[in-house]
Design a protein that fits this description.
Elements lengths: L3 H27 L4 H15 L1 E7 L7 E5 L5 H7 L5 E5 L8 H7 L3 E3 L6 H13 L4 E3 L25 E2 L2 E2 L1 E12 L2 E2 L1 H4 L11 H10 L3 E7 L11 H21 L21
Parallel strand pairs: 1-10, 2-5, 2-8, 3-4, 3-5
Antiparallel strand pairs: 6-7, 8-9, 8-10
Helix pairs in contact: 1-2, 1-7, 2-3
């Protein structure tokens, strides 16, 4: 199932594409105008990797916004990076991952420690980025999963939703990401871990397998946005987002999703809408 030749070709293309984009990206970073190139970069990386993205629901055009997603794999960054003009919020361990940490820093990722004693500082970091107009993507499960289930959401990162933009608290939009098909066939529980990265899996061997596989479909469903003021507490907001993401995951895994809700991503962010 894993093609060594395909993996090698894709790896070479990925490295070449990244090096080609590096200098113009750094120049645009200085001008704080790298958003468009970032979307385009990740879209091409998805194509190189063999990830075909189908979008459902409607992504908000309000900025800044806080996007709340389940977390299946480092591949989520490729997929969401090609759809949303936003910076990722990642756990501090990612800053030490070779290769990934460089890309993460270039994307102005915010690294946070999931410790209560650091909560105030982290809230301040997120608030400053939102105040600058940067949208954020958070993975409140705190870790990745096997793609077949959803872990409880930690409410700490939802503190960013308390930030006021204009006269209202920042908009929060939950979304669900699901890896559903491989070469046109449903993945199921057995094949999904080929793309899910969790537990004690090693990064390099897992990535090599992904590069050697065929075409995978990834479904991203945007759920209706809400605000913290719609709920009594931050935990209430976290529970609402968890329910929305869980229902989206259930629909995608069961194949009961209504194709009528499928939407085309904004032209500037379209990755691939072929299923």
């Amino acid at each position: 199932m894993v093609s060594t030749a395909s993996a090698a070709i894709r790896l070479i293309l990925f490295i070449a594409w990244t090096l080609l984009c590096l200098v113009p990206y750094l120049l645009l970073m200085v001008l704080r105008a790298e958003g468009g190139l970032s979307l385009f970069y990740w879209r091409i990386v998805c194509r190189i990797t063999g990830l075909n993205v189908a979008v459902f629901g409607q992504m908000t055009d309000e900025s800044p916004a806080l996007f709340v997603s389940n977390h299946v794999s480092y591949l989520d960054i490729l997929v969401l990076g090609g759809l949303i003009r936003a910076s990722f919020v990642a756990k501090s361990e990612v800053a030490g991952w070779p290769g990934i940490n460089v890309i993460a820093r270039l994307g102005r990722t915010i690294f946070v420690e999931r410790r209560p004693v650091r909560a105030a500082k982290q809230t301040s970091q997120l608030a400053k980025r939102l105040a600058k107009g940067d949208s954020l993507i958070v993975f409140p499960e705190g870790t990745s999963t096997d793609g077949n289930r959803l872990m409880p959401f930690k409410s700490t990162l939802f503190s960013a939703a308390e930030h006021v933009v204009g006269e209202q608290t920042v908009l929060v939009q939950p979304l669900t990401i699901t890896y559903t098909r491989l070469n046109g066939m449903p993945m199921g529980r057995v094949l999904r871990p080929l793309y899910a990265w969790y537990g004690d899996m090693s990064l390099a061997p897992h990535l090599w397998k992904v590069l050697g596989l065929g075409q995978a479909q990834v479904e991203v469903e945007f759920h209706p946005p809400v605000r913290l003021t719609d709920y009594a507490t931050r935990k209430g907001l976290a529970l609402h987002c968890h329910r929305a993401v869980r229902h989206g995951l259930s629909r995608a895994l069961s194949g009961r999703r209504d194709e009528a809700v499928r939407t085309k991503a904004p032209q500037s962010a379209t990755v691939d809408a072929h299923g």
